[in-house]
Design brief:
This protein has about 60 residues and is an alpha+beta fold. It has one domain. About 15% of the residues lie in helices and about 40% in strands. It is built from one helix and five strands; from the N terminus they run H-E-E-E-E-E. It has one helix at about 5-10; strands spanning about 20, 25-30, 35-40, 50, 55-59. The chain has a five-stranded antiparallel sheet with strand order 4-3-2-1-5. Strand 3 (about 35-40) and strand 4 form a beta hairpin. The protein is globular, with a radius of gyration of 10 Å. The termini are close together. It is found in: Spore core. This is Small, acid-soluble spore protein H. Belongs to the SspH family. InterPro entries: SASP_SspH. Its main location: other.
């Protein structure tokens, strides 16, 4: 996923279907400098991770 699209998803009021390794996730924050996003699985909000944007897929 590119940085611009990830930022659009974060700013959107609508929930978008995004996955990380096949797991549905929520994007909390996009770091443009490092090309990463802070995410968590929808079913485990306490499990935050910092991942590369190119590992995220929009369904």
């Amino acid at each position: 996923m590119n940085i611009q699209r990830a930022k659009e998803i974060v700013e959107s009021p609508d929930m978008k279907k995004v996955t990380y390794n096949g797991v549905p996730i929520y994007i909390q924050h996009v770091n443009e400098e490092t090309g990463t996003a802070r995410i968590y699985p929808l079913d485990e909000p306490q499990e935050e991770h910092e991942v590369q944007l190119n590992s995220l897929k929009e369904d």
